[in-house]
Amino acid sequence: MIESIESEFIFAASDENFKSLVLDNSQKGPVLVNFWSKKAGPCLRQYPILDKLIHQFKGRLLLVNVDTEQVFKTTKEYSIASVPTLKLFRQGVVVETLHGYQSENDLARLLDQYIARDSDQALADAIHEYSQGRDELAFQMISQAIIDDPENINLPIALCKLLKHEQRFNEAQDLLDALPEQFKKHLEVIKLREELDFIVIANKIQDLDQLILIVNNKLASLQELQQLSAFYVLNKEYRLALELLVEIMERDKTFEDGYPRVAMLKIFKILGQGHDLVSQFRPSLRCYAH
């Protein structure tokens, strides 16, 4: 039985030890949680693949099995409605969720994005060079590492962050645009993309005080409202940002292919669905239905 199979890389979780096995360990490296049931045939077919991959990774990934018929609290907490369900944890949060049986190739391709690789050391060396002021050398080292290991998502993410730090925003956007489609679905890539979108818009502001004055006096163009809204997002002044987006919608809901709606949804994602501002401003989106 699955619950009886444990090794140095595979563990069986209970409600009591889930935090230490999964959340705490995921601060050190990726942890794959297998929600399963002995009554489900796909779970039993899935397990040999999981066992094989876990041992191939040799400790760079842990597997934690959760028997949904016995571990009720955790199963409910993560809204497990069917098995097998696989959830990959990193830094205490779920970064990937897979429902149903997964082939070995598909699962390996996904996990490869989160597993420590030899090229991660090259990245660490490049970051050290950057911290010592050898910027161009660092960029060259990361670029070479990407050529050597194009499957390591950490490399373009790091390069994008350095470009952003250097305020080379358009280059950072171009880098993200050029990523393979599977990388564009990565949670951190999505967050970088959205942040860069706001940065590029806010970066068009030439005189912040003057812009605020123009906006307060109701003399601002739609582009100026957009710029100040993006500035407020980056400075976590979400209410002010949302108010300006509503103003844009009231004046022209088609502005830049519905930009206010897209921007509001991004802010809602940042805040989380339970936030008061989300409840307050969500009705403003109804204008797009008319």
Describe the structure.
By secondary structure, this protein is an alpha/beta fold. It folds into 3 domains: 2-112, Glutaredoxin; 118-186, Serine Threonine Protein Phosphatase 5, Tetratricopeptide repeat (Alpha Horseshoe), CATH 1.25.40; 204-289, Alpha Horseshoe (Serine Threonine Protein Phosphatase 5, Tetratricopeptide repeat), CATH 1.25.40. It has helices at residues 18-24, 41-56, 72-77, 104-112, 118-131, 135-148, 154-165, 169-177, 181-184, 187-202, 208-216, 222-234, 238-251, 259-271, 276-281, and strands spanning 10-12, 31-36, 62-67, 85-90, 93-99. Strands 1-3-2-4-5 form a 5-stranded mixed beta sheet, sandwiched between helices. Helix 7 runs antiparallel to helix 8 (169-177) and helix 10 crosses helix 12 (222-234). The longest helix has 16 residues, at 41-56. The relative contact order is 0.06. The mean pLDDT is 93.
